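hey m, so remember when u said the tokens were messed up on ur end? i reran from scratch. heres the input so u can diff it against urs
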Amino acid sequence: MNAVQASAVYGLPQARHRFYAWTACRAAQAGSAKAKRSEMMRALETCGVVTYLAQPTHEPIEQSALDLLFYDWVEAAMRTLGHEFGKPVSFGIAAKLISVYAKGIYVLHAGPDCKLAERLHPPIDSLLLKGVDARFGTKHASSFKWQKLDRSRYIALITQLRHQVADRPFWHLEEHWEP
């Protein structure tokens, strides 16, 4: 393939995908040294989130339906890492993989009135939880270790965090995140 053909194939969508997938893998690896970047990448690309967010348009989706879809993506990523690579990871680590990718590939490029972007889960980590704790007087950082969250503890945490943003988009929670 020559340079002209390569530029016709490789464009902004592919550049975004590669960058945000790499970012998501690195962020998830911060909680687990178990899986390699290539293994995390495979889990991300086979769990369904990449295909779903690459669709040109999305029908309005209720929060409960999106949550179930998100949980399916997380569990599919966990299965890939566990079954294909023998690298079991927690629900919290796989959720961070999915949410960092979704934030980059979709939320940051969506319009201000995009309901899907408003409802996607923000990446959960200790920095975010400490920031929320400092602002609201909660004890999420000591009660929830994101790297060890199973599905039920993740859902409990997400339910509590939604109260912190009230009627604003869920990603607004990240105003309390200090990298």
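this time it looks ok to me. Confidence is low (pLDDT under 50) at residues 1-6. if urs says something different then somethings off w ur setup not the seq
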